[in-house]
């Protein structure tokens, strides 16, 4: 059976609105995607790390409750599970403050049994951190060598803009390892000072990429592939929180790629468009509630 892998950071999100905490949830971009996929009944492994503390226990129980395989997780003793305070503005976009206390040894997990046809998602600032970079990129390279389809989501926001100059070569390396890049306009602006999808695709092609899904928040999505370009609209929804919207978009992509019997090179532009339409539906849905993942009712309707 094919498997899905997501590699990334784990945090515990405490969400504030109008100066008051409104909810607390397990978070982190790859965790959010994993939970959505687990709720959909797909075989998803989450490769990450968090402490053997009370917050870590909450997260661990939550992942298992949502059918996410936790056998490839590292639970460390000397440190604390990261906490993220998310402050929502009037548009329900989040500003973050992070509190982290990691141990010296990081991401000590076994190599997965990657197989051709599997899917792997990685990205975020976590994929650039020197403390985990070697282990993480070793997993990604092994997956690619095994015939796994690799998705990369840069997911780097403006607070990291001052740091990116010294890390840009690592982003280039990530681009070169991925079959599909799903990046936002904010990502490409922050990392490369690129403000148009066509220019972003030119850059992706320079590093061997053939497929770019360029998201523009509620404005729309641009799909670039060897077969051409396609633009899709995003429906207007009443937003409670945008946290997890991009992560759920990624879950929608993976959900359709997993279900499809066709490989990327065999897909028409219209077929890619249908996959992205599902991703848009996933991302739009998550904006309507405070959870960082698709709801159980939403997932149940698709099973």
Structure commentary:
The protein has helices spanning 29-39, 54-65, 130-145, 168-177, 185-192, 197-206, 245-259, 269-286, 296-302, and strands at residues 4-7, 11-17, 20-27, 44-51, 68-69, 73-76, 80-88, 94-101, 119-123, 149-153, 180-184, 211-215, 221-225, 228-232. The chain is of the alpha/beta class and 303 residues long. The chain has a single domain (4-105, 114-302), classed as UDP-N-acetylmuramoyl-L-alanine:D-glutamate ligase (3-Layer(aba) Sandwich), CATH 3.40.1190.20. Strands 1, 4, 5, 6, 9, 10, 11, 12, 13 and 14 form a ten-stranded mixed beta sheet that branches. Strands 3-2-7-8 form a four-stranded mixed beta sheet. Helix 1 packs across helix 7 (245-259) and helix 7 packs across helix 8. The longest helix is centred in the C-terminal third of the chain and has 18 residues, at 269-286. The model has no long low-confidence stretch (mean pLDDT 96).
Write the layout of secondary structure elements.
Elements: E1 4-7, E2 11-17, E3 20-27, H1 29-39, E4 44-51, H2 54-65, E5 68-69, E6 73-76, E7 80-88, E8 94-101, E9 119-123, H3 130-145, E10 149-153, H4 168-177, E11 180-184, H5 185-192, H6 197-206, E12 211-215, E13 221-225, E14 228-232, H7 245-259, H8 269-286, H9 296-302
Parallel strand pairs: 1-4, 1-9, 2-7, 4-5, 4-6, 9-10, 10-11, 11-12
Antiparallel strand pairs: 2-3, 7-8, 12-13, 13-14
Helix pairs in contact: 1-7, 7-8
């Amino acid at each position: 059976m094919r498997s899905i892998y997501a590699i990334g950071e784990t945090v515990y999100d405490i969400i504030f609105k109008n100066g008051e905490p409104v909810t607390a949830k397990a978070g982190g971009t790859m965790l959010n995607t994993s939970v959505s996929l687990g709720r959909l009944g797909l075989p998803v492994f989450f490769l990450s790390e968090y402490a053997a503390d009370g917050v870590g226990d909450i997260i661990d129980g939550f992942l298992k409750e949502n059918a996410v395989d936790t056998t490839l997780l590292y639970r460390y003793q000397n440190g604390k599970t990261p906490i993220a305070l998310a402050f929502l503005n009037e548009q329900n976009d989040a500003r973050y403050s992070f509190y982290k206390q990691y141990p010296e040894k990081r991401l000590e997990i076994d190599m997965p049994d990657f197989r051709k046809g599997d899917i792997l998602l990685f990205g975020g600032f976590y994929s650039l951190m020197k403390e985990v970079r070697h282990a993480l990129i070793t997993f990604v390279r092994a997956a690619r060598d095994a015939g796994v389809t690799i998705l990369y989501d840069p997911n780097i926001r403006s607070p990291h803009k001052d740091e990116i100059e010294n890390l840009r070569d690592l982003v280039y390396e990530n681009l070169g390892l991925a079959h599909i890049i799903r990046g936002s306009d904010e990502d490409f602006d922050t990392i490369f000072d690129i403000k148009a999808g066509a220019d972003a695709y030119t850059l992706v092609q320079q590093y061997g990429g053939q497929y770019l899904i360029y998201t523009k928040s509620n404005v729309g999505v641009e799909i670039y592939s060897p077969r051409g370009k396609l633009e899709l609209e995003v429906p207007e929804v009443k937003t409670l929180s945008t946290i997890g919207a991009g992560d759920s978009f990624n879950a929608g992509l993976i959900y359709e790629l997993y279900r499809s019997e066709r490989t990327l090179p065999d897909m028409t532009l219209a077929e890619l468009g249908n996959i992205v339409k599902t991703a848009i539906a996933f991302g739009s849905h998550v904006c309507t509630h405070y959870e960082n993942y698709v709801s159980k009712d939403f997932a149940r309707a698709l099973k």
